[in-house]
Amino acid sequence: MKSLNKEIGTVTLVGAGPGDPELLTIKALRAIESAEVIVYDNLVSQPIRDLFPSTAETLYVGKTKGCHSKTQDEINQLMVELTLSGKNVCRVKGGDAFVFGRGGEEMLLLSQKGIQVSTIPGITAASGCTTYAEIPLTHRGLTQGCTFITAHADKKLDVQWQALAQLNQTIVVYMGLSKTELIRQKLIEHGMSADTPVALIENGCSSDQRNILGTLDQLSELKHQHDVQSPALIVIGQVVSVAEQMQWLHQLNSKIQPDTPSSTVLAKTA
Ligand code: SAH
């Protein structure tokens, strides 16, 4: 973490993955362990926070829906001030900083101020959570691609529903929990089958991970019935049927996977 200018510190943007500390990359772990100041978000799980060295100054800047402890401008300003005072900042974010993580904005802003920024990729929620739920993002014969979208927008949600409904790909929706009814309606309205398998994954990659499986038509119902809370991902597509098959196979083999800290609930078909 060498600085261009001796007096100015650097920023390392670290993707901490979706929760399980064992999903940190070696590079991320090293950056955390050698950090002078850690600025971290609310999606950084407690087991990962437990790895922060006691010698590091730790600053929580988490943003939760409707309750911002700091605005993005304030976070940027904080990092600028820290680096200008000569500190090297380890900016730790959940998942991957460049996937719905505003990492790109932070990198550009800090670079514009002449601050050296490097970025360490992390496992994004779509990858970690689906894997722990035994849902492959792509599967030969089922889908040839996947699309990540966010259902969060500062102003109006700008989603190409028609294109999305007809892509025939796995769709992973980040920040979609408050929009389940809209997602269900729009996709069905634009031609996606109401029977398309869906999964709601809550607290992915933690010991509390819950996977609720059902169909697109049941999406909002499942959320309410199982009281699904944030953070949660919505996965839509035929690949979810692989997790359903795995449930039957686990029952058949009457054993649970030792390495998948997650519980799966199959919705009853209507
Ligand atoms: N940069 C992060 C995403 C930040 S957006 C990444 O790459 O994963 C925040 C959204 O990500 C949450 O609202 C939720 O939809 C999803 N998410 C992040 N971590 C999650 C987790 N452990 N379990 C389920 N969803 C998660």
Automatic annotation (TrEMBL):
Pathway: Cofactor biosynthesis; adenosylcobalamin biosynthesis; precorrin-2 from uroporphyrinogen III: step 1/1; Porphyrin-containing compound metabolism; siroheme biosynthesis; precorrin-2 from uroporphyrinogen III: step 1/1. Keywords: Cobalamin biosynthesis, Lyase, Methyltransferase, Multifunctional enzyme, Oxidoreductase, Porphyrin biosynthesis, S-adenosyl-L-methionine, Transferase. The keyword Transferase applies. Its EC number is 2.1.1.107. Residues 10-219 form the Tetrapyrrole methylase domain. One of its GO terms (biological process) is cobalamin biosynthetic process. InterPro entries: 4pyrrol_Mease (IPR000878), 4pyrrol_Methylase_sf (IPR035996), 4pyrrole_Mease_sub1 (IPR014777), 4pyrrole_Mease_sub2 (IPR014776), CobA/CysG_C (IPR006366), Siro_Cobalamin_biosynth (IPR050161), Uropor_MeTrfase_CS (IPR003043). Pfam families: TP_methylase. One of its GO terms (molecular function) is lyase activity. It comes from the Bacteria. Belongs to the precorrin methyltransferase family. This is uroporphyrinogen-III C-methyltransferase. It comes from Vibrio paucivorans.
